[in-house]
Write a structure and sequence with these properties.
The structure is a homodimer of 218-residue chains. By secondary structure, chain A is mostly helical. Chain A contains nine helices and no strands. At the A-B interface, helix 6, helix 7, helix 8 and helix 9 of A face helix 6, helix 7, helix 8 and helix 9 of B. Chain A binds a DNA duplex (30 and 30 nucleotides) through helix 1 and helix 3.
DNA sequence: CCAAAAATTTAACACCGTTCACTTTTCAAA
DNA sequence: TTTGAAAAGTGAACGGTGTTAAATTTTTGG
């Protein structure tokens, strides 16, 4: 019998999961505060009282480990957006809330958020024909899809200009929110907005979201 | 006599400048293609046929060297914006051109641009009272100032809503353009926009700029 | 209890930025 | 032209990094 699918895993599996979790949570702790710079395999090994090489039995590389942190956080962002998306708020405000929520959640863990966008993705020369558009599967694809549907909704409801192409608009919105998140978390002298009272930050995020939505309006 | 200010520098000075320039241009070459990851002091030393330690006679650290690349590129961006700013184009179009130019220039050297915004600036606890707002001196301060004045102009000309606060609007614009530049250069699957014909990229940048300006309009 | 398998460690490799003591080169004054 | 100091450049090392292979310990099932 194959017991690998039972709810109660074997003790060996449980132990393995515990160690894996310990690695991830140590990594999470360090990464949240010091980012990729402060996170070294050796330091991680120290914190969980294992040897550095042990970590490689749980993760293929440091990048794989960090990727898991990034993906987890990005999924959290998506979740929060999805909540707003299906909230009962009236439309134009709901759209603004989605944008603002994206930025606010990104600001919760600046290092995570920035790292998720830090790699310059290679051009891979010839189009990979074998996997045509798995955009819908990836987290980033989902983010784009959410926004695209949000725009469509606004068009159908008559709030946005009818000639808008939802996909283009979604890209523009996403990029703009991404920029705001990066600026607010990375540029401490983003003029007159360093670590002022949180309500000011919130107000500015709302302001930015409003400006973007206005740009789509009829 | 102090000869250090004569136009013709001493031979020693000229040699020193040549070597310094060689280091910088090798660094520029590598950095443009491979970014900070591919740039090591040892590799630089190899390329210019010096020993690694020699480089430290010209730059205090690798960071100082890279900073010089980043600053130089950011100044190029500012220059291009300034050109647009003082062009003869009619107003709302001129504003769009400024935004689009910022993004287009950033895309010329993605690694440079990204690196210029890559550091999370520390909170430094207590405000540094000794240097109250040197925003106007720094390159980023200048970028902000340009945009702020651009918005003011739009308000006075009656194109933008009168109640807009120029500084807030400028921050929003800047952040949005920053986001677009980062997205377009870093996310190769920024959906349906990887390395399509350049005219498509240009068109999208214009689209984005237009959307932002619309958000400010009365 | 014992052998096979899994988990873990030790030690090394090849890098990295940086520093320091040392040698070589340059250059102006005697 | 010789000399001596300053400048330029080097070699070797230090402590750090990610990663891997072999050896070792621990766990597990028959």
């Amino acid at each position: 019998m194959d017991t690998s699918h039972t709810l109660e895993a074997s003790p060996a599996e449980r132990r393995r999961r515990r160690v894996r979790e310990a690695i991830l949570s140590a990594a999470e702790r360090v990464f949240a505060v010091e980012g990729e710079a402060g996170l070294s395999i050796r330091r991680l090994a120290d914190e969980i009282d294992y040897s550095p090489a042990a970590i490689y039995k749980y993760f293929g590389s440091k990048n794989e480990l960090v990727d898991e942190l990034k993906e987890a956080f990005f999924e959290r962002i998506l979740g929060k957006i999805d909540d707003q998306r299906s909230s009962t708020e009236a439309y134009p405000a709901r759209a603004r809330s989605c944008l603002a929520t994206y930025v606010r959640t990104a600001l919760e863990k600046p290092h995570h958020y920035a790292a998720a966008f830090s790699s310059i993705e290679a051009d891979t020369e010839e189009h990979n024909e074998t996997e045509p558009a798995d955009h819908h599967a990836s987290n980033k694809g989902r983010a784009f899809q959410y926004l695209s549907e949000l725009v469509k909704e606004g068009i159908y409801a008559g709030h946005f200009r009818a000639e808008l192409k939802p996909d283009e608009a979604a890209k523009a919105l996403w990029a703009s929110c991404h920029g705001l998140a990066m600026m607010m978390s990375h540029i401490s002298d983003f003029p007159a907005m360093p670590h002022e009272p949180p309500q000011d930050r919130d107000a500015f995020i709302d302001y930015h979201s409003d400006l973007l939505i206005r740009g789509l309006e009829a």
